[in-house]
Specification:
Blueprint lengths: L8 H22 L9 E2 L13 E2 L2 E2 L1 E2 L2 E4 L2 E4 L5 H22 L5 H17 L10 H18 L4
Parallel strand pairs: 1-4
Antiparallel strand pairs: 2-3, 5-6
Length: 156
């Protein structure tokens, strides 16, 4: 991951291009290749100005509004909305499977273990960044957890 900070987008892009040339030189020495079609550029700013194009290995990098990096979705506004939506989609799928499993497994302790193994890790990933969650985003995550607990604690 290469990044630069500054006030002038043109100077930032020039510095990034220089860093990309250094990385390409290193890759040639070590016999590594970078896939320019999978490489994206991200411009985070309060302004709506369009940043200058960045090229790498003859290909122009596309600017991405959202990018998943190590399982964490980062958007141009630095909000967690896209990440929380992805978490709730993934968690809802797991909770649905937990509900289907309820008909086969009647033991609450086993269902709770399954929840802790398969659902909760998805919801807790990158939880240190949750201090910036809005009330709506917190409500989405809490409602998903409540739904899972209602399934687990349902009377037989």
């Amino acid at each position: 991951m290469l990044y630069r900070t500054g006030k002038d987008p043109a100077l930032i892009c020039t510095a990034i291009k220089k860093d990309l040339r250094i990385a390409a030189k290193w890759a040639d020495i070590w016999g590594v290749s970078f896939n320019a079609s999978k490489t994206v550029a991200k411009f985070i700013s309060r302004t709506t100005a369009t940043p200058p194009p960045i090229t790498s290995a003859g290909a122009t990098l596309k600017y991405s509004r959202e990018h998943r990096h190590l399982g964490f979705i980062l958007d141009s506004a630095l909000s967690l909305h896209a990440h929380v939506n992805a978490l709730t989609r993934k968690g809802a799928t797991e909770v649905f499977l937990l509900q289907r499993l309820l008909y086969k497994v009647r033991k609450q302790d086993l269902l709770l273990k399954i929840y802790k193994m398969y659902v909760r890790p998805h919801l807790e990933y990158a939880s240190s960044s949750w201090a910036a969650l809005t009330v709506t985003e917190t409500g989405l995550l809490e409602s998903l957890q409540c739904r899972a607990m209602r399934i687990i604690l349902a009377p037989p």
